[in-house]
Amino acid sequence: MRFLFVGDSMTIGSAGGYSWRYRMWQHLVSTGEPFEIVGPRCALYDIDANAPVSHAYADPAFPAEARRHLAGWGEGWLHMAPLIREAVASERAEVLLVSLGLIDLGFYTNSDQTAANAREFIARARLANPHVRMVLLPVIPNIRAESDAPFATECARFNVLLAKAVADLDTPASPILLASRPDSYDIHSDTYDGTHPGPTGEIKLAGAFATAMHQAWGLGGAYAVAA
Question: Does the model's pTM come out above 0.85?
């Protein structure tokens, strides 16, 4: 299977970190099943340079070919929908692992517009590969939602709309899963700033995707990656 990670700052990760992509790679290796990670990008975001130019992963042994992704700091469904058709086609992606939405709701679009962009993303991905599989992560807890009630309401409403989109658009030919919010995810212990995952948060995010695929499709094994 050819996996493509799609996401925002929580997925691209920052210089000196691991990223949940690394945790997923560890999991896929542990299953013993053949796989490939694909994508047009491979860098981490460098906060000092304000650009995705770092290759300083916390584990320098993380293979170059496994660092590929389609993720960007400050990018959301709004930004990825126009890119996904070309990315799926050129990378021959078969499974999309998508974590988007927080940045959209925080800066660009309301819940209705964000849900419409998610549907557009799905449609464009299928134009490139009519049999592509997708696992979508809802917007997870974050520090802004703790103090900004209208924002929290929009996050919750978007998650309902995303679940509806998955129910509407899931097909046998191109199945879509809605991953569950990671068990016991705590923004005070699983992130380094209330939003971006630290090591334990990365493990829980990867586990959410791995568990969804294993339970629904029998893809990979049960998730068991330690910190």
Answer: yes
